[in-house]
Structure formats: structure tokens, C-alpha cells
User: Fold C-type cytochrome from Pontibacter ruber.
Amino acid sequence: MKPLKPFAMLMLGAMMLYSCSSGDNETAGGETEQESGLAHQEEAAGESAAATETAAADEGKGVGPVKTVEIGATIDEALANQGKSIFEGKCSACHQLSDQKVVGPGLAGVTERRKPEWIMNMIVNPEEMTKQDPTAKKLLAEHLTQMTNQNVTEQDARAILEYLRQNDKAS
Assistant:
């Protein structure tokens, strides 16, 4: 048998590739048109979510699940006591209630400087806050330590917020 000539081998290879094709049209990146369309939809949805989070950050509410917080004119003592217990167990190793920096910033006056939503979002969502929120980014740059996610629930973060409010009213 004669060896196949280069042209014949090229044609044979092309036919094999064509026969293995799924029939879907592919983009330059190797995705099918359908996959490419889904990727663009997901990208647009991600951009929309990022725009919403940026808008929240611009309003001083931070980035995260907390969009609104109802706070009373007076301190809820029971909630503040619960917050004190949580703060002492999860926060006090890095934060003082004074102006003193330990690992993280001192928290005296924080409820007067930040919106309640921002404080709660920083407690429950510290990684995303330091990636996306301008104020949190600045704090990270100043203190050089990423706040650890302590897996605090929104309810517990609300209790911590009440404790911080109590501390700021006493000052």
C-alpha cells in the first residue's frame, strides 16, 4: 500500500474533525453561541448586583445583606446586654470600646460616625466590605489587618450595634 500524500492526510483529518463536531456554532473562545449568551447574561447580572452594592456603599450603608436597620430613640437594655456578651466573646480581642487601637480600630463614637447598616454589614460581611466599600478599604489600609469573619448572624450584629450605641451614649 502506498503511503498517503500530505494533502490526503490533511483532508482525512479535516473530515474527522467535522464529523466529531456537535453542530453548535462556536465562538472564538470555543464556547457555543448559547453558552456565550448565558455567560453575557451572568456577567450583566453580576454587574447589576455590583452596581447595587456600590450604590449602598455610596449611601454610607456598606456592602452586604443589611439594607435597613430600625433603631429606637432609646437604648434597648436587654438587646445591649446580649450584644455585650457577644462583643466580649468575638470582638474584644481586636477592638476596644475606647479610642485605643488594638489590632483593629477603637470603637468609641463609631455609631456617630457610621450608619447602623454600615456597622452591621462590617460585622457580618467584613471581607466584601474591605474589597468594595471605600471607608472599609481605608480602614484596612490604616490598620493593615483584615477583620476576621466571626460568622455573626444579623440578629447578633444588631445586638452588638445596640451595645455600641449604649457605649457611645454613655461617653
Notes: The helical segments are 6-20, 33-58, 77-90, 110-113, 116-124, 126-132, 134-143, 154-170. The first helix runs from residue 6 to 20.
